[in-house]
Fold these 2 entries.
Entry 1:
Amino acid sequence: VYANWGWGFHSNDARGAVQSRDPRTGAPNMRVDPLVRAKGAELGIRSVARGRFHGTLTGWLLDIASELVFVGDAGTTEPSRPSRRLGFEWANVYTPARWLNLDADVSYSKARFRGPDPTGERIPGAIEGVVSAGATAQGAGRLSGSLRLRYFGPRPLTEDNRVRSKGSSTLNARLACRLTRRYSLALQGFNVRSAKVSDIDYYYASRLPGEPVEGIEDIHTHPLEPFTLRASLVASF
């Protein structure tokens, strides 16, 4: 059983810290300070009682002095209200055989702005539920492989929780062959099922030719790339 508490600094977005010009006009703009004061605490229990299974269950809380929020029509980030995030994480690793590892992680967080505000208390883009699971095979021979599943749950896109994004599931795979003690060849498959899901979503007003001058509010999406193969040669020193 363990517990931690302390003060530090936190940043949830680095774009405003490195962006020196307004994306719309090209004029110089003020960079956003990426680090703000944060206070965090966690309480957890870790089990290593059995040699083949390791599990950790943690509850945590994080208070941030100011959230950085993406501004769609400006293409940058701006400081916003202080926030509080609390949640839990459950991490598990099981080794049924010397050559096989199975792992599964589940987490959930509740993110809210602190202080009353008529616009709402939700933090746009703050993911609530995440699941990651996989299997890794590494034998005594030259071959190894892994299969990984990742799930991102729905999340609010507006402060009043009126608009939410959909959840997404992706499956990735990797197969490697050790050629020599120094070199290995790997083949990776990303989004194996070629799922048509979003990599990220935003909600704001934008305008296309022929649309009203004030624009139309809607979800803006960066789609996840379709099934992709990548081959790589790895050298170890």
Entry 2:
Amino acid sequence: FVVVRQGAAASEDELRELCRGALASYKVPRHVFFIEQGAVPKTASGRVEKGTLRRTAEARLRGQ
């Protein structure tokens, strides 16, 4: 999941290319999902709810 700053633009391919230049090939993401800052699920303590993001990604992939 990627939150793009307001006024900025990025594509899935651009982000993957950026990752390929900085990460090992097995760490480059296969899927990139864009999400609004306010849509990032957080716990009461302000941490990102990774499980919720995982379920959201699974649902989006099933829909493809």
